[in-house]
Structure prediction request, 1268 residues.
Amino acid sequence: MTSPVLPSHGRVRPLGLAQVSITGGFWGSRQAVNATATLAHCEEWMERLGWLANFDRVADGTTGPDRPGWCFSDSEVYKLLEALAWETARTGDQEAEAAIKRLTVRIGRAQDPDGYLNTCYGHGEQPPRYSDLEGGHELYNIGHLLQAAVARLRTHGEDELVRIARRAADHVCRTFGPDGMPGICGHPEIEVGLAEFGRAVGEDRYVEQARLFLDRRGHGTLKDIPLGRAYFQDDIPIREAEVWRGHAVRALYLTAAAVDVAVERGDDELLRAVERQWERSVARRTYITGGMGSRHQDEGFGEDWELPPDRAYCETCAGVASIMVSWRLHLATGDVRYTDLIERTLYNVIATSPSPDGRAFFYANPLHQRTPGRPVDPDEVSPRAEAGVRAAWFDVSCCPTNVARTLAGLNGYLATTDDDGLRIHQYAPSALRAELPDGRRVAVDVETDYPASGTVRVRIAADASEPWTLALRVPAWAAGATLTEDGRTRPVEPGMAEVRGAFRAGEVITLDLPMEPRFTWPDPRIDAVRGCVAVERGPEVLCVESHDLPDADGLDALAVDARSVPPAEPGGARVRARLRDPADRPWAYGPGAAALARDAEWFDVPLRPYHSWAHRGPSRMRVWLPVSPPPEGE
Amino acid sequence: MTSPVLPSHGRVRPLGLAQVSITGGFWGSRQAVNATATLAHCEEWMERLGWLANFDRVADGTTGPDRPGWCFSDSEVYKLLEALAWETARTGDQEAEAAIKRLTVRIGRAQDPDGYLNTCYGHGEQPPRYSDLEGGHELYNIGHLLQAAVARLRTHGEDELVRIARRAADHVCRTFGPDGMPGICGHPEIEVGLAEFGRAVGEDRYVEQARLFLDRRGHGTLKDIPLGRAYFQDDIPIREAEVWRGHAVRALYLTAAAVDVAVERGDDELLRAVERQWERSVARRTYITGGMGSRHQDEGFGEDWELPPDRAYCETCAGVASIMVSWRLHLATGDVRYTDLIERTLYNVIATSPSPDGRAFFYANPLHQRTPGRPVDPDEVSPRAEAGVRAAWFDVSCCPTNVARTLAGLNGYLATTDDDGLRIHQYAPSALRAELPDGRRVAVDVETDYPASGTVRVRIAADASEPWTLALRVPAWAAGATLTEDGRTRPVEPGMAEVRGAFRAGEVITLDLPMEPRFTWPDPRIDAVRGCVAVERGPEVLCVESHDLPDADGLDALAVDARSVPPAEPGGARVRARLRDPADRPWAYGPGAAALARDAEWFDVPLRPYHSWAHRGPSRMRVWLPVSPPPEGE
Prediction:
């Protein structure tokens, strides 16, 4: 089946890409931009910077000391290949098919006879293979190659890319197997690649190698580094860890693989360990946007409650990786909390990164921008991950291809089936066709302009011979949701709202989610946003931008009235606010509590979706808004 | 005169080390520990790690690829030499004198015939001289050699160390002079070293070379780096900059040199530029402790109002450098705001770093420790600057020797003279003897146990033939201070309290500073501490440690009553507090504002000086305390 993740068993099963089409709307337009702009954009940049030519130079024996790109640049090519493969399945796009063939040839020529494949190590005067497991990313690159090959195999069938990947995987198993080097890669990814490749080709030994890598980790297997071994999760065995820590993308790729291995091995202890880590990390180390990674220094999780909005790193790739983890946990358990978090992350991290034209990206996704970013030249590589503006390409350019593969494969994350029916988790105008284990076929068309409105109409597209269950996710924030069936409307609680019947074609079941803007308060232990409130609307976190204030400096002085519900605005909301008038004192600390000009006039400030911030040019922005007067109960 | 900084002119003149002795008290005991433990500790570590042997290897032509230490390890030897030199003047310590001689011999043997002196570049298979101005620190090292030589020259007179330094300085002037390489060093320090060396030996050409380095900076003279050229202040010429930015120690060493050059050149425009930068940086980018540097990633200043307590970097060395800047500005202008900030930084950054035994140090000085540090082995080098515990030595070990040289030379920062008398800025039990420009001699003994109490008795130690003015600094926080003279007590305002008279030996002038603990509120634009209050007592910032709470987790739940003055405790204060009872929810954000258990019992929490935190073992700690109920005016 055409799906990024296909566990051999689980509480629910994903629908494949061939069973889902997104026909427009919020995500359909983003998929279209991804297809028509981002995919070519990524290939062009990698050609221009010589990251593709790196493969040619290895093939031609002309590697030199001046190799362009970081040691993980190969992985960007593989992530692009994965995106292209999902795209061919989504649309049958011939340009994507041609790109896959063209890239595969160049990659294949660079592979060594024993299967080793890397453009930065092991050729000419390059450092020897596996001479820097901590930083070299060789296995990481292969992990992404394997994910690309999985996508190719599931969307097209065996071809040269799949054979290249198999040779590389076999090389990894020989080199790092039980009798080989006892090493692991500083950046997890090989594990999740091997596990899915093993499932895709039906060979358990690849899953077993993933298990071996997982179990080797956490024992100080890698050398210590100044940031400490927690940086690459080699501090604590994954079964014993209580929380995610260190580099967020590393932690999350590793965890995704742990779910895969736990499921394939029936290892409930490992699955429970991962669920525990998810629970604490989501409860205490995750931003309201779903963003993860509080620290710039190590691109890492901070400690519990360390969630500064201004220095939030919230790497786009960590959002991708978080979805990978939650989706796997959902497939294993059927728990709706995981698809809730996926929705939050999709709307507030993934959708935030790309520009409307699909040719520029946010790398970091802070929740408070103190000074507007400086406009960047679309022809230049951004050296910085934290510019406050979307950049065409980065020195470390992991995010564009990660967004591309996520959007191209997004259809696979919309719905699942269980033994009795269809379960819809993400709402988009779409057509869903599935077959249940006992052969019953279900077919629905979803009609909605969600999240513009909260009305989701599920139209039965084929008569059922027997009853089946339609289950619709009611997000945790959607208190007051209703379900209308057969002209009868009833309230539904957050969770899965289920309807069972022998549905007839044309029948419509309607879910109405409350889309009034709402104030959201932080746990008092999140010190960095004490005394502040956020505004959310449906799945979208909203923000204030300096574009919408009479004076850009007003963003520092803003104090909002949180005593009544914020009224809706088209696509957003507004709040009543007034400006503090802090005196500029020579010293920022003094005997008087913060003064507020009591006679300051109230005015209305519009809020817009966080994912659209800086679309109108560089701006100052904040999600968390200081409140005045303070809330009751403080 | 025996003083670290001797401008050729200025509003006030420093007293030399020979004119001041600190006879005990808060700083006297720290100077004693520095002398008896820290100086030898530093030399032992550098011997053990081979940082000293690096000099021998250059001399013997046996440099190899395995050179221990970073490229700036030479500077630690020079900073230790500077500390030893001040120590010889302070106490006539023969061990310090012997150490100077022994180190000087080893350093001198490593100097090339043309004056170049570096153990990491330019010998054997090392990279060539000045092949990495951005990161190589060659000129930085020489800057510290020059400061050591200044100390030696002023405490002992010309000797081999001074001659070594002169040869090195001449080499620098030849190599980087107007007709030489147009480069600058990625880490400023050569500038302040050259300027003071020029003043010490009376040769203006060294000051001129410092000016040349200063004026070359800020034009993109160095290569760009991922952190951007602001990291090493090569983004904006110093005359045009509005605020300090980038790496804090770099920014501050550079600024210290700018004051020196401005004074020597009568360049009021440059002096005013630096004062402007000081004003904005102190008002908006400085912690209540005086600490500077909000970011770990680049050890740098953040943006205006970006002052997170938990991720405060506040490097000890930035505290040292801040004092260097403020002292120079004070000598130039006589403005008491600079010595106010010096006091704050001395008590809350410098005093915080060393352990009571002088053999372990804080590198970073956060204002909130979320999890207790892990105890460190006193025989191991700490790879991390942010451990939450004091470490014996660091991989990058700039702070121990910087503390050592500051404490050894501290006598030089206590007092100044102007044309009419003596001005005392820092209060310690001490004897001060000075000669005014017209030959009048003034002599006082200061009796105080400040900051344990606020009573400072200045006892005239010699009959005056003519009237003179005694000026005593009244800190900005000391509203309600009084001065008693001749049995008459009068209120004195923050600033300088002056008394003029033909004083007779034995007369006592008493300054009484109010030492009641006080609540201090942050500017509302400092988002990270909104809704919090700090407690200060005299010059000391206080903190709560988990040691003093019934439950260590209570530090997350603490809410203090800020409606009445916090009562004093011996050496500290206490506050009334209660614990919030935040429910552990699966998601940290929700519709209800932070709940507070309204029936929670009030209890007393002791606060102790921040500088003593973690003296009783690893702890959780916070300076900024959440307030409940919220303050009036919010």
Chain B touches chain A through 78 residues (CB under 8 Å). The longest strand of chain B covers residues 441-448. Residues 518-626 of chain B form one domain.
